[in-house]
Known about the structure:
This protein has a single domain, classed as Glycoside hydrolase/deacetylase (TIM Barrel, Alpha-Beta Barrel), CATH 3.20.20.
Amino acid sequence: MQTADSPYRRTMTTIDLNSDVGESFGRWVLGDDATILTSVTSANVACGFHAGDATTIRETCAHAVANGVVIGAHPGYRDLAGFGRRFIDMDPGELADDVVYQIGALEALAKACGGSIRYVKPHGALYNATVHHQAQADAVVAAVRSYDASLPVLGLPGSELLRAVDVAGMRAVPEAFADRGYTPKATLVPRSREGALIADPQVVAERVLQMVVDGSVQAVDGSRVAISAESVCVHGDSPGAVEMALQVRAILADAGVTVVAFA
Length: 263
């Protein structure tokens, strides 16, 4: 937490906080969606391919609507066993169809709760693939554009995904990650490597403040890399995710930063 005379208090800005939710499946419970949705402003809701069943998805959408949280589609590879964290070399046309299918399924369940989809953010390995894999990035964008070209797309700054969104004339939303380590090239440290995950809520909060106010973050090698983001993600399945979100909100409020949905 910053002190009363902190220089950060003189900086006024806004930021969106998003979280991956709706990822429980049947009797397997992952994360505390109901609670974290009281702290974030945007919800990346699983669409059933990497995680989430129909009841879980509907209930998550209902919690989001009740808390005034914007609902976004979080499509991934068809990979329940691997939680969508394994790359799949798919035909671009089939990938686009899978993304449209997932957006449509979530839209129906959100509508049943009085909500609607306001943006799209790929999940897991698909998200990571679209950083450098042009064909898959183009497929995701083609899917969103065919469904509703007005939907913004979240992605990593400098990624093929956001490049494709720009080329399509759609809204690209650059995103940063509160609880993930960064490489010196401003990409995410793979989950299999040391430094990929950050578990201390206070450290997470301080990193987010630096991202928002200074536009930078410390990489795993100690260097500082530039970060430009309209939204910051706190993963709903991270240990201590609820406390992370609370401390992030607190430190941002103390710095005069307004937390508000981008969509």
